[in-house]
Target: Alcohol dehydrogenase GroES-like domain-containing protein
Amino acid sequence: MSSVPKTMRAARLVEYNKKYQIHEVDVPQYGENDLLVKIGAAGFCHTDYQVYEGFYQSQTPQVGSHEPAGTVVAVGSKAAKSFKEGQRVGVLLFRHACHECVGCKTTRDIRFCEKKEMAGVTSDGAFAEYMIADADNTVLLPETIPFEQAAPLMCAGATVWGGISKLGLPAGESVGILGIGGLGGLGVQFCKALGYSTVAIDNRPEGRDLATEFPLKADLVIDYNDEKAGEKIVEWSGKGGLAGIVVCTDNVQAIEWSLKTLRPHGICVPLGVPGEGFHFGSFDLIGKEIIVKGSGVANRSEVEEMMKVVASHGVKSYVRTVPFEKTPDLPEMYMDNHLKGRLVMKF
Model:
């Protein structure tokens, strides 16, 4: 094992709606199928803000963030079959499936385990110098992807990649991405890399700018506040509307509106988790036989495929990095209406 100290710095949520506090705590102990990862960068996303607000009633004190990338510094005995010290890795948020519950037995997928840990939500996460990673839910990083770019891929990227995959559409079809922030900015690039005609929709100029920030640009950018936004999208797409749309916001009204952009048998994948639930217009849903698909974060094998696309097509996040010492400011920074892209803590 590499030289690892006994204690580390960690940014912890001690009280809901109060700034993270930086504490000196013990370096976590890893199990036989775990990795100890030295954090290089860790992202702050909407779920982190919901944890901060108390939406998930997470136990406190707790180390925040579930978007980590870093270097393996210690390996459990079972994990050593797949990993070794010195490897650069990205860590997905789920850890330690029980292998006994109905979810585990019927799906063999940690995402559906009833007793799983969720880094930064139900257990300590990545706003620390070190964290525990489950070897079964960790991926190797291509050398070309720096930690500050890899971190957002572990939640924002994995979530929108999973949503696009749920569409199941062939290349050449028309796809919409509604909400161009941390998820949507990556979603536009993924859609273009996969060969889709892509429309980006957002109500903020920062979001609309992000849709054309990188070489993989949206084919059409629409202001959600435009009264004729739906009509323009349907006319542009042809065939009566989009084949599919991935919704990267938890705004209930926007999610409902998204169905109006779809053709008959079109597919909507909402990725936001509104506390008040969803509301869909019955005539849109039933009259056009729209399909609404649930989608969470992608699984490990899907994320490995995503990494190949990121590396081969140069997919990037618009990142604003902050040093560890500024981690307590992240919730306030996140609520800036003019925020563009992703907030990432970088050591």
